[in-house]
Please model this.
Amino acid sequence: MTESKASTPLMRYPAEAVEMLKNDDPDTRVTLHFVRGLVKSGVVPSIRVGHGKMINYYDLLDFLTNPVQMTQPNRYGQIRPVQE
Model:
């Protein structure tokens, strides 16, 4: 395969990305719920297509290879801002 990851993104819906991941690793513990959470939080970038969102499969693999630790601010006893 002569194409590089940067020049040819594999844009997939989260369900398709999880299916591809399971084809590569049948014993993976990555779930659709987990991937959707990554998309919703913005850890894995996405683009809106119709009513859904698509992600670059290579971005998902990069995150799973080098996960970024997300820290939640301590807001106990405070009103949380509305997130859209």
Notes: The two ends are 40 Å apart (CA to CA). The longest strand covers residues 52-56. Residues 14 and 84 are 20 Å apart (CA to CA). Residues 14-24 form the longest helix (11 residues).
